[in-house]
Write a structure and sequence with these properties.
- The structure is a single chain.
- The protein is an alpha/beta fold.
- Helices cover 39% and strands 21% of the residues.
- The protein is built from six helices and six strands, in the order βαββαβααβαβα.
- It has helices spanning 41-50, 91-97, 113-117, 119-129, 153-163, 178-221, and strands spanning 25-35, 63-72, 75-84, 103-109, 135-141, 167-169.
- It has a six-stranded mixed sheet, sandwiched between helices.
- The protein is globular and about 45 Å long.
- It starts with 24 loop residues before the first strand and ends with a helix.
- Mean pLDDT is 82; it is low at 1-21 and 201-211.
- Belongs to the small GTPase superfamily. Rab family.
- GO terms for molecular function: GTP binding; GTPase activity.
- Keywords: GTP-binding, Lipoprotein, Nucleotide-binding.
Length: 224
């Protein structure tokens, strides 16, 4: 399911009743984009959030935030998308921002083999500092530069299979698979939230059943 421009909405206040008469749900999700310097993380975010491509490279310094509001399955979702610098001097800062993240994109550059090799470093960082259930997606960027390709699609797929995560090759310049990769992230997070809600409902039900059994046993023992 791909989000079209007319599906973008201005968020209503929490709890507002929609035109259909149903109460709109609201969620705020923290999504972080990590990877080596010059892999095109900022360009991917700019393409998704603002619909344009950055022609001139400007390295990120520290952490930058972009926001987007979408409608998905009758839910208003506030996406806080954090763009991170890929240099070592900002690593301690980036590690702090992993806290509370619900989604992570790990980006490499298909024209730079080292950026693929360094995925082990980024994945270890995520394992060490991000929530254990954070949704992860691997992105191979700059697939428009086919003549300069150093990492095959198959190599990217193998790495993704190794880590057990989805994989997309994208081009922020040609707007290829950028929306699809974000929609995959949205659908996976939404599914995880739904499963957690169902699990909580069952836990509440189990507690009620247990309490009912205790009350029943206590009543049967009572000789009043």
């Amino acid at each position: 399911m791909e989000l079209m421009e007319d599906q973008l909405v201005v968020a209503a206040p929490p709890g507002e009743i929609g035109s259909s008469g149903s109460r709109q749900e609201h969620s705020t999700w923290k999504i972080i984009v990590v990877g080596d310097m010059s892999t095109g993380k900022t360009s991917i975010i700019e393409r998704y959030c603002d619909g344009h491509f950055m022609e001139y490279y400007k390295p990120s310094t520290g952490i930058d935030l972009k926001k987007k509001i979408i409608n998905y399955e009758n839910k208003t979702i506030f996406l806080n998308i954090w763009d991170t610098a890929g240099t070592e001097k900002y690593q301690s800062l980036i590690q702090l921002y992993y806290r509370g993240a619900i989604g992570l994109f790990i980006v490499y550059d298909i024209t730079n083999l080292n950026s693929l090799h360094n995925l082990e470093f980024w994945m270890k960082n995520i394992d060490d500092f991000a929530p254990s259930n954070v949704v992860r997606i691997l992105i191979g960027n700059k697939c428009d530069l086919e003549s300069n390709r150093k990492v095959s699609t198959e190599e990217g797929q193998l790495v993704a299979q190794h880590f057990g995560i989805p994989f997309f090759e994208v081009s922020s310049k040609n707007n290829l698979n950028v929306d699809d990769s974000f929609m995959k992230m949205v659908s996976m997070i939404n599914e995880m939230e739904s499963e957690n809600a169902i699990k909580k409902d069952f836990e509440v039900l189990d507690d009620k059943v247990i309490l009912g059994e205790i009350d029943s046993k206590m009543s049967s023992k009572c000789k009043c």
